[in-house]
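Listing S7. Sequence submitted for prediction.
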Amino acid sequence: MQRYRKRTLFTFLALLSSLGSSLVANLSSRLHAAEVSDSAAISSSGEPKSDFPWRRNIVTTFFWIGQGGSSISATTNVASAWDAKWTADYGGIDDPARHVGFCPSRFAATENPFYVALPFNDVAFPELAKKYCPWYKTPNEANRYVSQCKGHWIEIRNKDGRVAYAQWQDVGPLRTDHASYVFGDDRPHDFNHAGLDVSPAIHDYLGLTGLDLTDWRFVDADAVPDGPWRTYGEQAVIYAALKQKELQIEGDWHPYKKSAPPSDQ
């Protein structure tokens, strides 16, 4: 146990030396500030410019990466409509019971924890995409199965006017072909009229409780203000550096490096 503690301390000190304590302190303070005072960043930025209309009073449901099926849908969220390794690429299961602030507590998310699902899949329905999606371009053969919707930013507003920003990463709730709603004037019709699925981070940031009504619209990436939806990448950088340094030290360290291993005789 004593050897393990020394090794852990050495790992941490080596990381600080390689990154620089001022860098770590700066990144940590920025992450903390984003979570405890992020509303100030929103209010100071004002209303972002967007050419896209609001979808108002949309029933908003709650889901997460790695979630199993439910009584409403047998679909699991281990994979997304556009990423067969979604859970692995994210870093793990985005369990809402295991969050610190807006991020998972047991790993650093390597993709944005502020993510949503909307009920249209451009890869599965390219003709509908051509008709409705304003930024869609007919792909070449090499990119036929690459989504042009994945990663697009949206702005979400709760009933109190609090705003969050998120990236479109999956398809749902329930439907996959509802382009006339996502890009047009139609309304959600199925089940409870849900038209937007949000991640645990958005759910908590906006204070949602159940089948809440929210407004949402598309926004351009350069119009997205600073906030916790931007700083997750810094956490991932620190975590990745920790893991890399730990693996490096493990490769160099051996319990008998300074002395020969004991003889079996």
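Caption to Listing S7: primary sequence and predicted structure tokens for the chain studied. The mean pLDDT is 80. The chain has two domains: 1-46+226-258, 47-224.
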